[in-house]
Each structure stands twice: as structure tokens, then as C-alpha cells.
Specification:
The complex is a heterodimer of chains A (239) and B (388).
Chain A: E1 16-25, E2 32-42, E3 47-51, H1 58-65, E4 73-78, E5 81-82, H2 88-98, E6 99-102, H3 114-127, H4 134-147, H5 164-176, E7 182-186, H6 194-209, E8 213-217, H7 221-224, E9 229-234, E10 237-238
Helix pairs in contact in A: 3-4, 3-5, 4-5, 5-6
Chain B: H1 2-13, H2 15-49, E1 56-61, H3 81-91, E2 95-108, E3 111-120, H4 125-128, E4 131-134, E5 143-145, H5 147-153, E6 160-163, E7 168-176, E8 190-194, H6 195-202, E9 209-213, H7 220-231, E10 238-242, H8 243-286, H9 288-296, H10 301-339, H11 348-377, H12 381-386
Parallel strand pairs in B: 3-8, 5-7
Antiparallel strand pairs in B: 1-9, 1-10, 2-3, 2-6, 2-9, 4-7, 5-8, 6-7
Helix pairs in contact in B: 1-10, 2-8, 2-10, 2-11, 3-7, 8-9, 8-11, 10-11
The chains are: A alpha/beta (239), B alpha+beta (388).
Chain lengths: 239, 388
């Protein structure tokens, strides 16, 4: 593990802490302030629903916590590590080891089978320095696939051969495979019918009960009902 | 390994355009290899034609006979016996062979031709020339015939020829082995007679050239300098050539030709590189969203870069492998058309060009993949994820 990145489960403070975070996107038409002096703390084991109309800064907040972007000003701590001044590689490692993404469009890699999609982040994280052998990688992937309730027979299929619900299960398995502290879900049921959406939400709730901290962007009240806590963003600020 | 596997699958998915890009590499590799083999075969065949007289220094009278052609019947510039003595002193233990050079009308059977004549001390002849048939010249009279001359005029051991207008009959005692073009003497199409006979027939003005055989090749430059120092003290009276340098000059010229033809082959590889670049750029654009996904699940920039470089590498490997195999055919064709002989096709120094061609093919692919891979690696993951 890179220096400066804390091992998991360390620190008594909040898992996620935003201190006066601002994110400005410079555009030719003028700067856009997506997140405006936002301060927020999320404790380990929490399940936060982030609500708000489109353009309110929900996605930006998720990208910042997900280490896909860094704040323009202010500090963002994950597990006590300030991400603001991290270079791309340590930021990527932090994301790889601490964060799991679940997207609305599932975002599986179409060329790879369900199993390989799950395997990919694990290999990136631990499979290439001889940390884990092929056997062990396979074992862990099968375990995580069964924990999301995906039939083992489906693991050899390409994403295009799976239903939306099955794809989202694979995506959740992929997000979980590196045993991250945080699951970031961006409208996880947005592309699913109500019934399938419910089963996915129940799966996420179960993951939360098992100890995963979840931050979920949604504008579906019913889906937000699964969260322990709701926050609403308006123009990049807490409402 | 998953990165490589992933790259391989993407090529398979887009097999048709990958195939087109590979064709470019194949053509480039075949062009480079064939041209390289052709050039090398050319050099080899030339160097086989030329006698490998690397150990020889030739001293000509200044403005006298030229280095190649050997004849030069003019009597105005000759190396005098005194100068030969100076040379002998200058070169120490190395062998000095003064050569009378001239030409005369020779009647062979019914034919009557001007033929080059070399007058040599019979003791020196075995040092310089190899025997094909008969015996070496031992006495003052008699002559040895060059192979080509003998073939053309049907001369055998025991034949007689008539040299000169006076009509002195001379018996052929031996036929010389074919020697190829040399920078000292060219006996293939000439008669070799004894120095005594030559002097009694044509007078004793001096020698057309002096050949110095150097025992130790390392000394060749020192010997050359010694001769020049001894004879060209005030004015240049002799020209001193060492055959190795001449040979080297000619070889360099042919090597340059060979390099040039290979470079022409290289141009087709550049075209192939552009086509790989194009395919890779398409791949990056199409897979922008995928790159965003891969980045979001924890792939570093260099890992994304590696995926695309693997893709270029696979294209290069396939193209070079096919190209390498086809190169044998291409080279065979080029060599047999240009040289009418494929003797030099399967020698290591030719085959190494096929290896070069393949390495260039792989290198070109990787180089062409570099920019697209860099582009992919430096995409903003958020924007890439939003891309459709």
C-alpha cells in the first residue's frame, strides 16, 4: 500500500469528512460552482441518501468522495487521509481500495464476462504482485458473486446476455470485491423496474447492515427510504 | 495478464479493422526484409566476384596505368628497377613482386586478338596465382593462360600461341584458375609470361606495377606509408593503393545501396504505422466510457496505457509474424529476379534482415500505439464515464 494511505478500519474519527469543500468547474461561459463551501461528516456504517434536483451538485459530491476528482478548495478526508493534494496514482489506489462504485447504467465492461468484470478490480489491487494466486482470486470472486445472489451459471456470461437486475448484481459484486469501506451508488435503481429495484435496494441494505458505509444519490423518495439518513443539496449546499 | 487478455479480446471484437491494420504491418515487414536480403545478397555476390586480396599493396607509377584494367601498354611511365629496390628495402620482409604489364597481338589458332600480358618472375607466380591445369611456368619460355581466355580460344596445356607481330611461338604450360576482378592484376583474360622473356621481347624500361604481399594485415598501413616515404620524397612518383581500402570503398558503396533500398521498404512501414495509429485512435474514442469505468474501479493511468499498448503490440506481433513468414517468399522473388541466383538467400547475414524487418514491424506498432495509449490514459475519468 502506498504511504499516506491508511490501512482499513483505522481512526476513530468519521470515515468521510468534508471541510468547507468547494468545487468549481471552469467553463468558457464562466465558472460553475458545483459544490459551494460544503461541510459534511459520514460515520462508518452509515447509509446516506443524497437528494436534490439535477444540477444541485449530487454527482459532483459523489465524484469527490469517490476520488475521481479533487476539491478546488477545502479538505476532504477519507479514513483520515486528505485527498486534496494527492497525485493521480495514490488517489487511484485510494479509490481502488476504499471505494466501490455502483452506477445507474451498471457500467460493466462488455468484452468481459460477469466473472471477469468482478475479477478485474481484485487483480488490479492484489493479483499482480503475487499477493493472491489465481485460485484465491477465483475463490474470492465466487464468494462475492454468491453474496450478491448471482447464479454461478451466469458468471460466464457477457453483460449483454444478462438482465438489468443481474447486471446490477454483478456491478455490486465488482464494487465489493476489494472489500471497500464505502459503496457509492449513483441512482442504482434508475434503470430497473420497481420490483427488481426493490431487490437491489434490499441487497444494498443488507450490505449496509453487514458494515458497508453507503452513499447513494437518488431522487426517488421510496429508494431514499432505505437510507438511515438523508441530505438534500441545493446549488451545491446542504438544504 | 487480464490487461493483455482484455486487449486481445478487443482486437478480436474488431477483427476486420485490426486485420486491415495488420496487413499494413505485413507489407512493411516484407518490404524491409526483402529489400534487406536483396541488398545483402547483392553485396555478397559482388564480394565473391572480387578477389579477396586484402593483403595486397599495389604500387603504380604516377599517372601510369590505372588501378583496374591492368593493361596500359604505354611505356612513358614505368617503375624502374632502382625504385623496385627502394620498395624492397622499405617493406622489409614482405614479398615484393614487380610485374611487367603490357599487351600485344596474340594469335590463337585462327584467331588474332590483342591480349593483356603479364611478365612475372616464375618464382613469384605461385605466390600470386592458382593453377587449374598443367604446371606453373618454370623456365624463361612458355606461358600460362587465364581461364576465360583459355575457354574462349580453346587453349589447353600444350597449345601454342603466337605472341607479337614477329610471330614468336610460345607453348602454354598451364591454365590459371579463375580469379575474378582484382585490383592488382586481372589474369583471367590474359597471358602470363616470364619476366626474362618479357624483357627480351619488349625491352627493360621498367615495370608496370609492383605488388607487395603483406604478411601481417595489421602492418598494411605502416608498409604503405613506408613505400610512400621512400619513393614520393620530393614529388609523387608512384601511387600506392592498398586493396583492402579499395575493397572497403566498393563495399561501402554497395552497403549504401542496400541501406537505401531497405529505407524505401521502411516507408511502407511508416504508412502501416499511420494505419495502426488510426485504428488505435478509433479504439480509444469508441471505448472512452470503458476507460472511465476502468479508471473508476481503480486502474491507474499507466495500467490503462498498458492495455492500449498491448493492443498495439498484439497487432505488431501478428503482422510481424505473418510478414516474417511471407518475407522468405518476397526475398526469394526479389533475389531471383534481380540476381538470377538465390545462393545468398539463406545465409545468416541475409536472414538477419528478416529479423530486423520483424523487429521494425513490432517497434512501429508500439510507437504508433504510444500516442493513443497516452490519450486514453489521460482522459478525465468523470468525463469519460459520461461519454456515450
Amino acid at each position: 500500500m502506498e504511504k499516506g494511505v491508511n490501512p482499513k478500519g483505522k481512526s476513530g474519527g468519521p470515515l468521510i469528512r468534508l471541510a468547507d469543500v468547494t468545487k468549481v468547474y471552469p467553463l468558457p461561459a464562466g465558472d460553475v460552482t458545483a459544490i459551494d463551501h460544503l461541510s459534511l461528516e459520514v460515520d462508518r456504517g452509515d447509509f446516506v441518501a443524497v437528494m436534490g434536483v439535477s444540477g444541485s451538485g449530487k454527482s459532483t459530491l459523489l465524484n469527490l468522495i469517490g476520488c475521481l476528482d479533487v476539491p478546488t478548495s477545502g479538505d476532504l478526508y477519507l479514513n483520515g487521509v486528505n485527498v486534496r493534494n494527492l497525485a493521480d496514482d495514490p488517489l487511484t489506489e485510494l479509490r481502488r481500495d476504499t471505494i466501490g462504485f455502483v452506477f445507474q447504467q451498471f457500467n460493466l465492461i462488455p468484452l468481459l464476462t460477469a466473472f471477469e468484470n468482478v475479477e478485474f478490480p481484485l487483480i488490479l489491487a492484489r493479483g499482480r504482485n503475487g499477493d493472491l494466486g489465481r485460485e484465491e482470486i477465483g475463490k474470492q470472486c465466487r464468494a462475492v458473486l454468491s453474496s450478491v445472489g448471482l447464479d454461478q451459471d451466469l458468471a460466464t456470461h457477457k453483460p449483454s446476455e444478462l438482465s438489468g437486475g443481474q447486471q446490477q448484481r454483478v456491478a455490486i459484486a465488482r464494487a465489493l470485491v476489494n472489500d471497500p469501506d464505502i459503496l457509492l451508488c449513483d441512482e442504482p435503481t434508475g434503470n430497473l423496474d420497481t420490483r427488481t429495484g426493490t431487490t437491489i435496494m434490499e441487497l444494498l441494505a443488507a450490505m449496509n447492515r453487514a458494515g458497508k458505509t453507503i452513499i447513494m444519490v437518488t431522487h426517488d423518495q421510496r429508494v431514499a427510504g432505505y437510507a438511515r439518513r438523508r441530505i438534500e443539496l441545493v446549488d451545491g449546499r446542504l438544504a | 495478464m487480464i490487461l493483455f487478455d482484455y486487449a486481445r479480446r478487443n482486437i478480436r471484437l474488431h477483427w476486420f479493422r485490426s486485420f486491415l491494420a495488420v496487413i499494413g504491418i505485413v507489407i512493411g515487414v516484407v518490404a524491409i526484409s526483402s529489400m534487406g536480403v536483396l541488398g545483402n545478397s547483392l553485396v555478397l555476390s559482388i564480394s565473391d566476384t572480387l578477389t579477396t586480396v586484402g593483403d595486397t599493396i599495389v604500387v603504380y607509377p604516377q599517372s601510369g596505368a590505372g588501378p583496374v584494367g591492368g593493361g596500359g601498354g604505354t611505356t612513358s611511365f614505368r617503375i624502374t628497377p632502382r625504385q623496385v629496390d627502394q620498395i624492397t628495402r622499405a617493406v622489409g620482409t614482405n614479398l615484393v613482386i614487380p610485374v611487367h604489364t603490357g599487351a600485344d597481338r596474340v594469335t590463337m589458332g585462327r584467331e588474332d586478338r590483342a591480349v593483356a600480358l603479364y611478365g612475372l618472375d616464375p618464382a613469384d607466380i605461385p605466390e600470386l596465382l592458382e593453377l587449374e591445369d598443367g604446371i606453373y611456368l618454370r623456365s624463361t619460355t612458355g606461358a600460362m593462360a587465364g581461364k576465360r581466355l583459355a575457354e574462349e580460344f580453346d587453349l589447353n596445356v600444350g597449345s601454342t600461341v603466337v605472341i607479337g607481330g614477329d610471330g614468336e611461338r610460345v607453348r602454354i604450360v598451364g591454365i590459371l584458375k579463375e580469379r575474378g576482378m582484382g585490383f592488382d592484376i586481372n589474369p583471367d583474360y590474359a597471358l602470363v609470361v616470364s619476366d626474362r622473356w618479357y624483357e627480351s621481347t619488349y625491352g627493360e624500361e621498367g615495370y608496370g606495377m609492383v605488388i607487395v604481399k603483406v604478411k601481417d594485415l595489421e602492418e598494411i598501413n605502416a608498409v604503405k606509408t613506408a613505400i610512400e616515404d621512400a619513393l614520393n620524397r620530393r614529388t609523387d612518383v608512384v601511387t600506392v593503393l592498398d586493396t583492402r581500402a579499395i575493397l572497403q570503398t566498393i563495399m561501402d558503396a554497395f552497403n549504401n545501396i542496400s541501406t537505401f533500398t531497405t529505407a524505401i521498404g521502411g516507408i511502407s512501414l511508416i504508412v502501416a504505422g499511420v494505419s495502426i495509429l488510426n485504428v488505435m485512435m478509433m479504439s480509444v474514442t469508441e471505448r472512452t466510457r470503458e476507460i472511465g469505468i476502468i479508471r473508476s474501479i481503480g486502474a491507474k493511468r499507466k495500467e490503462v496505457m498498458r492495455i492500449f499498448l498491448y493492443e498495439a503490440l498484439v497487432l505488431g506481433l501478428i503482422g510481424s509474424a505473418i510478414g516474417g513468414i511471407l518475407s522468405f517468399g518476397g526475398a526469394y522473388l526479389a533475389v531471383s529476379v534481380m540476381l538470377q541466383s538465390t545462393t545468398y538467400l539463406f545465409v545468416p547475414s541475409s536472414l538477419v534482415y528478416i529479423l530486423y524487418g520483424m523487429l521494425f514491424g513490432i517497434g512501429t506498432s508500439l510507437l504508433s500505439g504510444l500516442y493513443p495509449a497516452w490519450r486514453a490514459a489521460n482522459l478525465n475519468p468523470i468525463e469519460a464515464l459520461r461519454h456515450d
